[in-house]
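user: Kindly work through both lines:
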Amino acid sequence: AFVFALVAFGCNGDDSGNEGTSQRGSMVLMMHDAPVDDFREVWVTVESVIMLGADDDSSAAGEAVLTESVRMDILALDSLAQIVAAVDVEAGAYSKIRLQITNPEFIRDDDSVFTGGDVHLVANGHVDLNTQGDVFIVEDDVTIVSLDVDLDNSLQINQTGNGRYILRPQIFVDNGLSGEEGIIIEGATITSVDLDAGEITVSTTESEADVDLLVELNDETEIISAGELPLALSALLIGTTVD
């Protein structure tokens, strides 16, 4: 495993699998957050993510973006964004994102742990996000959608004084990134290395689409081995797994 800085996105699409079907575009879904006082870790499991169009009713199947659960520490996403999924979806406008969240676990600065009966998850973790303006998935292109978790306003202490916490996830949809955030990619595989251009192309394990991510290295990029030793770009081999 290696660690490196991601500073740009790219895509390497292949339309051969979509012949005779509806137009498709690629979507990269990410989540990020700001720090919150008194807590060291806040873990949740994102079980599913579904995109719904303006004409879809509440029972519509929609477009599944995440089909396998992702466990994450939201507090680790300060100034970082974690890729939750990279998938092909039908091109068009989407006005709602539906999430299912489970298994919250809070660890305070004093090492006390709150989970299970200590945490009440509002609406059993069912969260519908209005996009405040449609998210447009463009045919044969990559759309980045970032979900901003407002954890500071999502956590509440139970007013009855019994010490239980209430988690009412407040999440906002960001269409695109400012470019100032770092990106977390876990378990990616190097598919190409360009020494002259200083670029790496990786394929993520979360991806159900033929979409690669382009990593452009600069003077501030650090490549570190699992043994925490610095490496040169030339040491990276195609097929190597990286974080």
In short: The CA atoms of residues 35 and 221 lie 25 Å apart.
